[in-house]
Amino acid sequence: MSNREIVAESLVKSFGDFTAVDQVSFKVEAGEVFGFLGPNGAGKSTTVSMLTTLSLPTSGSATVGGYDVVHQASIVRRIAGVALQEIGLDPLMKSMELLTIQGQLFGMNRREAQNRAKELLAIVKLDEPKVIDRRVGKYSGGMRRRLDLALALVHRPQILFLDEPTTGLDPASRRDVWTEVRRLNREYGMTIFLTTQYLEEADELADRVAIIDKGRIAAQGKPAELKAALGGESINLTFENTGAAEEAQRELEGMVDRAQIDRNTLRLYRPKAAEVVPIVVSRLNARGLVPSALTLSQPTLDDVFLKVTGQRFTQETEPVEKSA
Amino acid sequence: MATTVNNPISTTARGMSFTPDAALPQMPFVLQVSAMTIRSLRIAFRVPAQIIPGLIISVFFLFVYTGTLGDASNFLPGLSGESYLGFILPLAVLSAALSGSGLAGDGIVRDIENGYFDKLILTPASRSALLLGHMIAGAMLLVMQCCIVVGVAFLMGFRPETGILGVLALIGFALLLGTAFAGFTVGVALITGSSGATQGATFLFFPLSFLTATFVPVNLLSGWIRTAAEYNPITYVLDATRTILNTGWDGEIVLRGLSSVALMGVVLFAFALYGLRVRTKRR
For labelling, which of A250, A266, A277, B194 has a CA lying 20 to 30 Å from the CA of B261? Predict the structure, then answer.
């Protein structure tokens, strides 16, 4: 039986000169939902591909359920379920056919496989007679993702890999997937390794998170702890230009635990930040600095990302000054 | 519903839950192959546009060449007295077999292009079963096409010299040739993963079926085309099947045909297996 853990030790994957995954190490505990969070091109899918035995690490090692991904690949494939970002379904087939063959190839007899298929279709809500009769090529994106998830679950894996499970889905479908992921984890104790480019997804679902950027892990831990480490709430002051923000920073940084500039916005971090807003405003006024916007916010994983990589998670690639 | 950690997602029905142990029973190879074959046949019939063109070309051969050259054949030495239909039928059947062999390559390349192949790789399925499913389905479909071509010939008045046994021998040769050539299209499919390249490879049957004793016996050819025909393995298969249908069982000619197609089979199967290794090797 597997120990339902995932352990990566100094995993490296290089393609010629380019290193896609650079010394990645982590341990996912049994029954945990582990979020692998990073922008496009960070190395998430490459890492998943090594953990699911689809590709070989250049160096380093990993075990899934206690079995080595390189030398015990066939065992890993039996205990792990995989739903990749690229959904691989034959558009000419129907859902029962796909699920039944999957079950049979994993050693079930035809009857068992068919029953299992029906059970899974009910779970992912694809069991309407009209839908069952339809070829998979005619499914919507959300339906194909749900079927892909069902396929990953056929052989009752104890560990599930979900590579960007909600990318490209509408908000309603996305919530459905979240509900299902939580259910799989809570009711069945499945260890779930989830990669995502959506901060709120990692925040919502993951027990622990690893932030990956340019192939390296920038931070790891529970979302709440990572956010708390930023030093409480932040007061966000937007100015006309970076120069004004920097001036404001010089004026105010003695008052706070941490200050960080993000383009022309100054973020001041301290617990109970709301209490010092009046002081902040009056000090700025005394210097003739007038912010165009002032907001109070709870730290988000975006803030964590900004702190550990010096860049905003979303859009721009302009590097930003690291925090004081 | 049981929620023990050792048995996630147990079913509610009796006797259906099983532990996902690493020592899970394997699906027997024969059953794997038959499941993949049935699947391949099912989807082949969902795209009839795949099967029809090759069939039409072969029947076209029959009609047009017989119609055009049928009466002219009396002027060709060595053919007078023989039915030109009998001369051209083996060619039509063999070209049906060759174009039908493309189905195996097509099936594989489709799986690769839509990503289903990668999913199958992640199951305990034997790699060769993934291949054989498409190849056997392709073989069954090409036999069906050949039978149709033969049926049309019968309707046109053809009667084989060696009776039903001769017809079976013709289909048998077609099956062997088609399966051998399928090794080629499958190999290309696996190595390139591209439907364009695979269709191009399949279409090679076209020149192959012309660089042979297509319209006239080999001894009437001369120059470069004769050399080409002599090196083309199809020539010997064509020879063998023509003799069987029109003259009788000539041991030597039949044997030459058989060894020719066997040699093709061995080489092209090795190619297909090489392609399988290339495609499934982890990088």
Answer: B194
Contact A270, A261 (CB under 8 A): no
Whether B148 maps to a domain, the answer reads: yes
Is the ipTM, as predicted for this complex, more than 0.90? Answer: no
**Using CA atoms, how far apart are residues A275 and B12, in angstroms rounded to an integer?**
56
Domain presence at residue A317:
no
Q: Count Cα atoms within 13 angstroms, Cβ side, for B33.
A: 10
* A197 & A259 share domain: no
Q: For the segment A12-65, what is each residue's pLDDT rounded down to a tens digit?
A: 999 999 999 999 999 999 999 999 998 888 999 999 999 999 999 999 999 999
Contacts of B87 (CB under 8 A, 6+ apart): B73, B79, B242, B246
Q: What's the domain count of chain B? A: 1
| pLDDT, tens digit (0-9, with 9 covering 90-100), for B66-99 | 777 666 655 555 554 456 777 788 888 888 888 8
Q: Do A189 and B111 touch (CB under 8 A)?
A: no
The predicted pLDDT at position A20 comes to: 94
Q: Do A107 and B115 touch (CB under 8 A)?
A: no
- Give the separation between CA B200 and CA B185, rounded to whole angstroms: 9
Average pLDDT over all residues of chain B: 82
Backbone angles phi, psi at A118, to 5 degrees: -65, -40
Distance from CA of A43 to the nearest CA of B (A): 16
Give a yes or no: residue A320 inside a domain: no
**Can you spell out the DSSP letters for B189-210?**
HHHH--HHHHHHHHTTHHHHTT
Best B11, B18, B43, B122 residue to mutate vs chain A (most A CBs within 10 Å): B122
SS (H, E, C) A241-285: CHHHHHHHHHHHHHHCCEEEEECCEEEEEECCHHHHHHHHHHHHH
Of chain A residues 126-165, which have a CB less than 8 A from chain B?
A: 135, 151, 153, 155-158
Please give the angle made by the CA atoms of B175, B179 and B185, to the nearest 5 degrees: 145
Residue with token string 């590579």: A163
Q: Give the total number of structural domains in chain A.
A: 2
- Burial class of residue B9 in the structure, from the number of CB atoms within 10 Å of its CB (0-12 exposed, 13-18 middle, 19+ buried): buried
Structural domain range at position B185: 29-34+48-280
The CATH code of the domain that includes A261 is 3.30.70.980
CA distances from B253 to B228, B256, B258 (A): 19, 5, 9
**Domain hosting residue A263, numbered range:** 227-309
Q: Is residue A318 part of a domain?
A: no
User: Chain A residue closest to B22 (CA)?
Assistant: A75
Biggest distance spanned by C-alpha atoms of chain B: 86
